[in-house]
Amino acid sequence: MTDMSYLDGNMLDGPLREVFAVDLSAATGRCQSCGMVGPMARLRVYSHAPGLVGRCPSCAEVMLRLVRAPDRAWLDLRGATFLEVPMPLDRPWAG
Ligand SMILES: [Zn+2]
What we know:
Elements: H1 13-20, E1 28-31, E2 37-39, E3 44-46, E4 52-55, E5 62-69, E6 72-76, E7 80-84
Antiparallel strand pairs: 1-2, 1-7, 3-4, 4-5, 5-6
Zinc ion binds next to loops.
């Protein structure tokens, strides 16, 4: 493993910028707690917290937390195993 090459994390800027620029409510997510896979738009969102809390519609565990400050935001997706985001076909990451 010592000579495995890797790229600096700065290379993630373009790919992540592309993912975060899309409508994430159209994304599909998997609940880490119960394994349910479904659209993020079906989460039950509670807004009377310091931020937004999205809970699984199946087991009610937290899948997403989003806190917004004037100059920054925190996104916590610990409760989601993955997000599957629809992407346009004509913008591959290959480079
Ligand atoms: Zn769940």
